[in-house]
Write a structure and sequence with these properties.
The structure holds two protein chains of two kinds. In chain A, 0% of the residues lie in helices and 49% in strands. By secondary structure, chain A is mostly beta strands. Chain A is globular, with a radius of gyration of 13 Å. In chain B, the strands form four sheets. In chain B, strands 2, 5, 6, 10, 13 and 14 form a six-stranded mixed sheet that branches. A four-stranded antiparallel sheet of chain B has the order 3-9-8-7, with no helix packed on it. A two-stranded antiparallel ribbon of chain B has the order 1-4. The chains are: A mainly beta, B mainly beta.
Amino acid sequence: EAGVTQFPSHSVIEKGQTVTLRCDPISGHDNLYWYRRVMGKEIKFLLHFVKESKQDESGMPNNRFLAERTGGTYSTLKVQPAELEDSGVYFCASSQGTNWGPQHFGDGTRLSIL
Amino acid sequence: AQSVTQLGSHVSVSEGALVLLRCNYSSSVPPYLFWYVQYPNQGLQLLLKYTSAATLVKGINGFEAEFKKSETSFHLTKPSAHMSDAAEYFCAVSRLISGANSKLTFGKGITLSVRP
């Protein structure tokens, strides 16, 4: 089966611009998660979708971040406007329903804000 | 609240030597524990997981971990290191909430180097 796919793999933008990251989960996985790793820090949770609903968005840093998962398939994470501190690697993960299937991670999007 | 402590940022071993990567957790409810590995320019790959079954968990690539409730630990071991084990390793904790898999809380990660 295809794994979790993230696009783009790298993005370099200037402060104040807008960037949209995309995640395609493994087919049939209801759970979709976004995480972020800022350089030198631990990987931190951003939010969790169950199908198209936001189950937990407690990790979203501020209202410049908007995540969507229309139709319960792929998800997008938009940062508008981007700030310097938003630089880092953004990971997406997906898992099956409620049977403790593990979270499968994508390769991440490396976001650099100049 | 849950948290994970991975002491140190870097471990270096000789090829063929024992690998021991330490992880201690804090959780107010029975935890689910995981070890992930990240090879350069790749995503995180699950090595093994503990979800309240056997306390000694075997994973891929010869790794195993033992859940010790009394010590709140979940250390990762491998009897004999291989050059291909060089990577960054993450310990993570989670819990089941209302039947749904909840978020992972990660440690800071530890980089394993293997000397020839």
